[in-house]
């Protein structure tokens, strides 16, 4: 469907849980109160949401979280999404993927994006609070299942100042590496202020040459020919081409990741005119984020669904 600014909005990022087995320092501040069961949208409700989004012409679905592999019923949701006409992707830290990859493939999952900020075991533990080996096992399983794979690393000073090891690793598993600018949220702004590198000077330091833009990803080549993507919402925003909205595991619509407007949709789901209500809310998606003006999302990324 078209929004008020002529953008074709067709991509739903659905957070299926706000629980996570990692605790990445830039993502979700700890401790986070656990959601009450009744506050979580059920799988049936999520299916009904998908029907409504499909009726509006949405055809891309990404399941995220929290850590989506912690959500019971994930495979059923993937199957349902595929039946409703969506191409279904998953964003995961991969630490629980080794045992699940085959099941998710059978359910119809199309692709996997893995978040992996570093290949240094000690740094991984310090920043994300988990075992790097688990994530690597998960990636291996995804490769064995033949999933198209992307590896996403959030740029942080002292964590991945040199992208080389990640680029080489991504290439070795047949994946594309995408570096992501560390984005400020109200709850994690201190960490971000401390750790966000200036991506422009990093690119200069690496002698990276731009080789084009694909959607929201700027592609670069290093002097030895290795390539990587950069997602730069701060220094090279892509709001004018944004085609997505987010739905939290509580059934709240978030039209723009960085704007505080949140619409709780569960109470409206049974209404006969739900699809047209949804359409009018999405049509009002803001034209751009206001990060440069210092307007930060008060909800943390882990609760919205990255
Ligand atoms: N648990 C899953 C994972 O690790 O991929 C899905 C949820 S996580 C919130 C989704 C993505 O958001 C991850 O790639 C994470 O690195 C990214 N993310 C979280 N906080 C961020 C921030 N402040 N800036 C940039 N990316 C962020």
Automatic annotation (TrEMBL):
<protein>
    <recommendedName>
        <fullName>GTP 3',8-cyclase</fullName>
        <ecNumber>4.1.99.22</ecNumber>
    </recommendedName>
</protein>
<dbReference type="InterPro" id="IPR007197">
    <property type="entry name" value="rSAM"/>
</dbReference>
<dbReference type="GO" id="GO:0061799">
    <property type="term" value="F:cyclic pyranopterin monophosphate synthase activity"/>
</dbReference>
<dbReference type="InterPro" id="IPR050105">
    <property type="entry name" value="MoCo_biosynth_MoaA/MoaC"/>
</dbReference>
<dbReference type="Pfam" id="PF06463">
    <property type="entry name" value="Mob_synth_C"/>
</dbReference>
<keyword id="KW-0456">Lyase</keyword>
<dbReference type="Pfam" id="PF04055">
    <property type="entry name" value="Radical_SAM"/>
</dbReference>
<dbReference type="GO" id="GO:0061798">
    <property type="term" value="F:GTP 3',8'-cyclase activity"/>
</dbReference>
<feature type="domain" description="Radical SAM core">
    <location>
        <begin position="4"/>
        <end position="221"/>
    </location>
</feature>
<keyword id="KW-0411">Iron-sulfur</keyword>
<dbReference type="GO" id="GO:0046872">
    <property type="term" value="F:metal ion binding"/>
</dbReference>
<dbReference type="GO" id="GO:0005525">
    <property type="term" value="F:GTP binding"/>
</dbReference>
<dbReference type="GO" id="GO:0006777">
    <property type="term" value="P:Mo-molybdopterin cofactor biosynthetic process"/>
</dbReference>
<keyword id="KW-0408">Iron</keyword>
<dbReference type="InterPro" id="IPR010505">
    <property type="entry name" value="MoaA_twitch"/>
</dbReference>
<keyword id="KW-0501">Molybdenum cofactor biosynthesis</keyword>
<dbReference type="InterPro" id="IPR006638">
    <property type="entry name" value="Elp3/MiaA/NifB-like_rSAM"/>
</dbReference>
<dbReference type="InterPro" id="IPR013785">
    <property type="entry name" value="Aldolase_TIM"/>
</dbReference>
<keyword id="KW-0342">GTP-binding</keyword>
<keyword id="KW-0547">Nucleotide-binding</keyword>
<keyword id="KW-0949">S-adenosyl-L-methionine</keyword>
<dbReference type="GO" id="GO:0051539">
    <property type="term" value="F:4 iron, 4 sulfur cluster binding"/>
</dbReference>
<keyword id="KW-0004">4Fe-4S</keyword>
<keyword id="KW-0479">Metal-binding</keyword>
<dbReference type="InterPro" id="IPR000385">
    <property type="entry name" value="MoaA_NifB_PqqE_Fe-S-bd_CS"/>
</dbReference>
<dbReference type="InterPro" id="IPR040064">
    <property type="entry name" value="MoaA-like"/>
</dbReference>
<dbReference type="InterPro" id="IPR058240">
    <property type="entry name" value="rSAM_sf"/>
</dbReference>
């Amino acid at each position: 469907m078209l929004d008020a600014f002529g953008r074709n909005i067709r991509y739903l990022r659905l957070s299926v849980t706000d629980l996570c087995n990692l605790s990445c320092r830039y993502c979700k501040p700890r401790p986070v109160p656990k959601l009450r069961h009744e506050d979580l949208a059920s799988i049936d409700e999520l299916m009904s949401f998908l029907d409504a989004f499909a009726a509006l012409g949405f055809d891309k679905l990404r399941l995220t979280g929290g850590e989506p592999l912690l959500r019971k019923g994930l495979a059923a949701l993937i199957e349902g999404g595929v039946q409703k006409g969506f191409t279904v992707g998953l964003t995961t830290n991969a630490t629980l993927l080794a045992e699940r990859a085959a099941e998710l493939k059978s359910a119809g999952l199309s692709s996997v994006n893995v978040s992996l900020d570093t290949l240094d075991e000690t740094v991984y533990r310090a920043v994300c609070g988990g075992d790097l080996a688990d994530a690597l096992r998960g990636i291996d399983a995804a490769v064995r299942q033949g999933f198209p794979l992307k590896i996403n690393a959030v740029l942080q000073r002292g964590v991945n100042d040199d992208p080389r090891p990640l680029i080489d690793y991504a290439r070795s598993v047949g994946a594309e590496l995408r570096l992501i600018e560390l984005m400020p949220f109200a709850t994690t702004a201190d960490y971000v202020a401390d750790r966000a590198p200036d991506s422009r000077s990093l690119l200069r330091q690496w002698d990276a040459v731009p080789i084009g833009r694909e959607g929201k990803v700027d592609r670069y080549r290093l002097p030895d020919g290795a390539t990587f993507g950069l997602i730069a919402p701060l220094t090279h925003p892509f709001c004018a081409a944004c085609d997505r909205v987010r739905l939290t595991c509580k059934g709240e619509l978030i039209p723009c990741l960085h704007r505080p407007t949140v619409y709780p949709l569960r109470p409206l789901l049974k209404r006969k005119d739900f699809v047209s209500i949804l359409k009018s809310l999405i049509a009002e998606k803001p034209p751009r984020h206001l990060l440069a003006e210092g307007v930060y999302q008060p909800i943390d990324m882990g609760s919205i669904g990255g």
